[in-house]
Amino acid sequence: MGISLNSQATTESVYNAALALGIANQLTNILRDVEEDANGGRVYLPQDELAQAGLSDEDIFAGKVTDKWRNFMKNQIKRAKMFFDEAKKGVTELNEASRCFLLLQLPFSGPLFAANLAASAVPKMLCVRFYYLYL
Fold first, then answer.
1. Each residue of 41-91: pLDDT tens digit?
2. What is the CA radius of gyration of the chain?
3. Are 57 and 43 in contact (CB under 8 A)?
4. Which distant-in-sequence residues (6+ apart) come within 8 Å of 93 by Cβ?
5. Long-range CB contacts (< 8 A, 24+ apart) of 116-119?
6. Residue 50 near residue 116, CB atoms below 8 Å
7. How far apart are CA 27 and CA 20, in angstroms?
8. pLDDT at 58
9. Domains of the chain, start order
C-alpha cells in the first residue's frame, strides 16, 4: 500500500492510522460476537470495564439486556468509532489503488457498522454485499 505522491502526511501518521484500523476492526469483531462467544463459554470484553459498569461474565452468559449493558455497549461502540475515525485520516493519504480497498474497512463511513454488529443474527456474508451497496 502506498502513500499518495500528493500527500503531506508522514509515514508515521499513516502507520498510526493503520494501527487504529486494526484495533477498530478487532473491537467490532468482539462486540459483534458477544453472544456467540458467550455461548461457547468465552468473554472477550474488557473485564475492568465490565466491572466498572457493574457487569460480570455471569451477566454476559445470562444474555440479559439491561440499562447497564446498553450503556456499556454504547461506550464500547464509541471507542470503536474513535479508532475508525482515526483510521479514516490515514486512508485519505493513500494512493487511489490502496484507498479503495481500505474504504471497505471503514464502516463508519456508511451504515455498515450496525450491520456488522448484527452479523450474528444474519448470515455474515450479507455484510459483504452491504459494503458494495452503501459505499
1. 999 999 999 999 999 999 999 998 899 999 999 899 889 888 888 888 777
2. 17
3. yes
4. 3, 4, 7, 9, 13, 14, 17
5. 116/28, 116/32, 117/28, 117/31, 117/32, 117/77, 118/32, 119/32
6. no
7. 10
8. 96
9. 11-134 (1.10.600.10)
